[in-house]
Automatic annotation (TrEMBL), chain A:
<dbReference type="Pfam" id="PF00400">
    <property type="entry name" value="WD40"/>
</dbReference>
<dbReference type="InterPro" id="IPR001680">
    <property type="entry name" value="WD40_rpt"/>
</dbReference>
<dbReference type="GO" id="GO:0005815">
    <property type="term" value="C:microtubule organizing center"/>
</dbReference>
<dbReference type="InterPro" id="IPR052778">
    <property type="entry name" value="Centrosome-WD_assoc"/>
</dbReference>
<dbReference type="InterPro" id="IPR015943">
    <property type="entry name" value="WD40/YVTN_repeat-like_dom_sf"/>
</dbReference>
<protein>
    <submittedName>
        <fullName>WD repeat containing, antisense to TP73</fullName>
    </submittedName>
</protein>
<dbReference type="GO" id="GO:1990811">
    <property type="term" value="C:MWP complex"/>
</dbReference>
Length: 387, 570
């Protein structure tokens, strides 16, 4: 594997355009756009302050740079480098900023989640959405970009508004039966909205596009509940990872649990377990990785390699601090492969921040704090790759 | 005899007196008047002496004072003594009566005591029984209580665990709430600060947007006004997506259903066929009510087959029928399989036995065969042993000879091959040689012709050559040879090369050249000696011409020989 030279970036703002042709990185207050094949700098833009958030528009023509401290959003155009756009939120502040699916509207969430301002780049029109909820994932666009679901809280009750992204027409507004809505997610086919409660209550609600409650699912009471939720790309399965270290999968026909995966402390009945062994000069620290993960050694100073452990394997369990909230136990990351055949999960306190599958479904990338690991899945053999 | 009877009677009386029942004793024993006659009959005037002696005897036995004086023969009875004796006897009697009474009393007492004891015993036994039963009852209760205790303890443990768990939960929830509270409080504080700041802040920065120019819509279309129509359209769009999704799902489910139904029907068909075959087999073996059942099954199957084909199987009844019939068939199949398993074990064992028998038979046959073979072999072996051992040796010798012969044959074959090769080479060489000779002859002829033609009647350098006819020819030959010397060596060299013989340097004079050229052919690389001979002969041409010719011819022959030799040695 070849590596390019190292480019600077700040705030982990480094994104490839949706059409895959360009790479945009932010270095302090500069925005650098490169061609992805040659890595030549194509454009260089200067923002007014250090960029906190950067996002490509869906048609890869515009880039949004948000500076939360200053409450500014600047939009740059790739086709016309002279074109500029600056949105100043004023004294109301800015907490988050994002594109709409059509790439012509910008949604800014003001400080304290007072409201969401929808700026139109086509007409300079402004719309406001009141009382958005400040939660883990309060806003979600459907995959085809036609609908937006927004969690709101009015009069101490959670509700959801569904907007048509075309003209921001409020399609549906309904209350949810949650105590404290933590997140919502559209199914990939855009017909079902999964809504889950905060960790104090295990409750997953499924609403159809027109606002009807299809089903409720609750695995248990009282203990800490849902930690992460993920749809399968075919919309057939909904995987729910919870604080009890289990993953439950619901099917889309009956919305009942079809299977339950556990993450026991002693692994006994899997095919292979790979254990990452790090060799640092000072100490030896062992990191266990997930099921069916391949491994390799790194090129950097801390040599880590993976070795195949013979079953049964004991995973070191870290007891969470009982006095702290949001304990680091439970299934925090879920990722379905693109053909819905495999599910990668992360349980516990491992240094894996994200899991992403390749679109052809045979490799998965594990991102850690300092390292990343590319894992290829093969029925015959398992190849290794590292980075 | 009257005396003996009297004595007997007396005895009897005494016995009677001694052993009458206690109760009757006081009445009957003292009833002397009954026995008075017998007493009187005891002693009569005739047997006085005997009676007296007897009484004396008895008295002495009883250790009473004697009442007779033994001085007299007449035995005068001392009446006082007799009275005393009688008194003693009466005393004795009273005493004995008293003791008898006492004893009776004792006996009564004891019997009553025994009765008492008996009743006590029975009472106590009953009590023991009762207490035993009570004991078992108590043990039973104790056991139950133990069990209850255990269950209560386990439930207590469970409860404790649950309490612990709930405590953990509540603590984590409390932790979470606290965290949330703190977060909200922080947010509230921030809000307050912000509010204060805003109130204090005079200039309020408004929201602005600064665009260079408006962009077009992503899809290129113009935006529409928000009207009811658009709203309705949106609704329609939404419902359409939902409907399409439902339709898709329904289609998928319908396909799945179809597949499953097909599979079910297939299974049913197969099961039916299996059952039919099995039922036929069973029918052959035993005729039971199964016949009735099979008939009904067949009917049902037939009915259902036809219905299957005709109906669409979309109605619930048909579906239920199908599933029920499949379940039924499956149960029957299972039972049949179980039966057959139990039978099959026997069958298998039977088959195994048959197999084993067959194999054993085979083994036996083979063994017999082997034995006969062995016998024959031994006989064969033994019969030559009867003959001379020389024959054996002969055999050995024969083998050796055979081997030798084969080796010789091999070597001969090799030699033959070599000879073949040599012959081939030789023939090739001979052919080549002939070719070259032909060429040479042609050249020579040509040269001679040329010479002859070029020969002029006027003398010149060539004349002296012509005068000596023989030599002239030769000289001309030599000249030719010298002229052609340049050509010759090439040919000869080629011949040389082909013959693999040593090349001879051709830098000498013309005659030498000719000679060398002529000698090249016989040159065989074997003997310089011959060469030197031939060279040596060149000095006198005249003499040696025919000789040389001969030599040349010989040398040619030699060359052929040498060729062969060369080849043989090669």
């Amino acid at each position: 594997m070849n590596f390019s030279e190292v480019f600077k970036q700040s705030n982990q703002l480094c994104k490839v355009s949706p059409d895959g042709k360009y790479l945009a990185t932010c270095v302090q207050y500069r925005l650098v756009v490169r061609d992805i094949s040659t890595l030549q700098i194509l454009q260089l833009y200067t923002c007014l302050d250090q960029v906190s958030h950067m996002e490509w528009s869906s048609d890869s023509l515009f880039i949004l740079c948000a500076m939360y401290k200053r409450g500014l959003v600047q939009v740059w155009s790739l086709e016309q480098p002279d074109w500029h756009c600056k949105i100043d939120e004023g004294s109301i502040g800015l907490v988050s900023s994002r594109w709409s699916p059509d790439g012509r509207h910008i949604l800014n969430t003001t400080e304290f989640h007072l409201r969401i301002t929808v700026w139109s780049l086509c007409t300079k029109a402004v719309s406001y959405i009141k009382y958005p909820k400040a939660c883990q994932k309060g806003i979600d666009f459907s995959t085809d970009g036609s609908y937006m679901a927004l969690a709101e809280r009015r009069d101490c009750k959670d509700c959801i508004s569904i907007f048509v992204c075309d003209d921001w027409h409020l399609l549906r507004h309904f209350e949810t039966e949650t105590q404290d809505l933590a997140g919502l997610e559209w199914s990939p086919n855009g017909c079902v909205l999964a809504v889950w409660d905060s960790c104090l209550e295990y409750k997953v609600l499924l609403y159809s596009l027109d606002g009807r409650l299809l089903s409720t699912y609750s695995a248990y009471e009282w203990s800490l509940g849902v930690k992460s939720v993920s749809w399968s790309p075919s919309s057939q399965f909904l995987a729910i990872g919870s604080y009890d270290e289990k993953v439950r999968i619901l099917n889309h026909i009956t919305w009942k649990k079809i299977v339950q995966f556990e993450h026991p402390a002693v692994i006994e009945n899997t095919k292979t377990v790979y254990k990452e062994v790090e060799k640092r000069p000072a100490e030896v620290r062992d990191e266990f990785s997930l099921h069916n993960v391949t491994m390799d050694s790194t090129l950097f100073s801390t040599q880590s390699k993976y070795e195949i452990c013979s079953l049964p394997v004991q995973i070191p369990a870290v007891k969470p601090d009982p006095d702290r909230a949001n304990p680091k136990i439970g299934v925090s990351v879920l990722a379905f492969s693109s053909d819905s055949r495999y599910l990668a999960t992360k349980n516990g306190d491992f240094q894996v921040q994200s899991l992403k599958w390749h679109c052809n479904g045979d490799s998965v990338i594990l991102l850690g704090k300092e390292q990343l690991c590319l894992c290829y899945m093969d029925t015959e053999q398992e190849e290794k790759l590292n980075s | 005899m009257p005396d003996s009877s009297q004595v007997k009677d007396a005895r009897r009386c005494s016995v009677e007196c001694g052993t009458p029942p206690l109760r009757h004793f006081s009445q009957s024993s003292l009833a002397l008047p009954r026995n008075s006659q017998s007493l009187r009959t005891f002693c009569t005037e005739h047997n006085m002496q005997e009676c007296l002696s007897y009484i004396k005897q008895e008295v002495s036995l009883l250790s009473l004072s004697p009442f007779w004086t033994e001085l007299d023969d007449d035995s005068q009875l001392n009446v006082v003594a007799v009275l005393n004796c009688m008194y003693d006897l009466i005393q004795l009697h009273h005493r004995s009566l008293r003791t008898l009474e006492n004893m009776e009393m004792e006996q009564l007492k004891l019997s009553s005591y025994v009765d008492n004891l008996k009743t006590n015993n029975t009472h106590l036994k009953e009590e023991v029984e009762l207490s035993k039963r009570q004991n078992t009852g108590l043990l039973e209760r104790e056991r139950q209580l133990h069990l209850k205790l255990k269950s209560l303890q386990s439930s207590l443990k469970n409860e404790k665990d649950e309490v612990q768990k709930l405590q953990n939960i509540t603590s984590s929830r409390a932790c979470q709430y606290n965290h949330e509270m703190k977060r909200r409080e922080r947010e509230l504080n921030k809000l307050r600060e912000r509010l204060n700041q805003l109130l204090a802040d005079k200039k309020e920065r408004k929201q602005t947007i600064d665009l260079l120019n408006n962009l077009g819509r992503a899809d290129g279309k113009r935006s529409l006004w928000k009207t009811e129509k658009t709203e309705a359209k949106h609704e329609e769009e939404m419902y359409r997506t939902l409907l399409s999704d439902y339709e898709l799902r329904q289609r998928e489910l319908a396909l799945e259903n179809k597949e499953l139904r097909k599979v079910m029907q297939q299974i049913k068909k197969e099961m039916v066929s299996i059952l039919k075959s099995r039922k036929l087999a069973l029918k052959e073996e035993k005729q039971e009510l199964n016949g009735m059942q099979t008939a009904s099954d067949d009917e049902e199957n037939e009915v259902f087959d036809s219905s299957k084909e005709s109906l669409e199987l979309f109605c619930i009844h048909a579906r239920e029928k199908l599933t029920n019939s499949i379940r039924l068939q499956w149960r029957r199949l299972k039972s049949h399989v179980e039966k057959l398993d139990s039978q099959g074990v026997d069958d298998v064992s039977r088959e195994e036995k048959e197999e084993m028998d067959r194999l054993k038979l085979e083994i036996q046959q083979c063994k017999d065969f082997i034995q006969t073979q062995q016998h024959l072999l031994q006989r064969q072996l033994s019969s030559p042993i009867d003959q001379d051992s020389a024959s054996l040796q002969n055999d050995g010798l024969m083998l050796q000879e055979k081997m030798r012969l084969s080796e010789e044959w091999k070597s001969l074959e090799e030699q033959r091959r070599i000879f073949e090769r040599e012959r081939r080479n030789y023939t090739e060489a001979a052919i080549r040689l002939s070719h070259e000779r032909k060429i040479f002859e042609e050249d020579r002829a040509l040269w001679l012709k040329q010479q002859f033609l070029s020969m002029s009647p006027f003398g010149n350098s060539n004349q002296p050559h012509l005068l000596k006819s023989a030599s002239a020819l030769l000289i001309t030959e030599t000249e030719v040879g010298s002229l052609n010397a340049s050509e010759m060596p090439h040919e000869c060299q080629s011949v040389l090369v082909s013959q693999k013989s040593r090349s001879v340097s051709l830098t000498s004079s013309s005659t030498d050249d000719l000679e060398s050229a002529l000698c090249l052919i016989p040159e065989n690389g074997s003997s310089e000696h011959r060469k030197s001979e031939l060279f040596g002969d060149f000095n006198s041409l005249h003499e040696n011409v025919p000789l040389r010719r001969k030599q040349w011819k010989e040398s040619k022959d030699l060359s052929s020989h040498s060729l062969s030799e060369e080849n043989s040695t090669a």
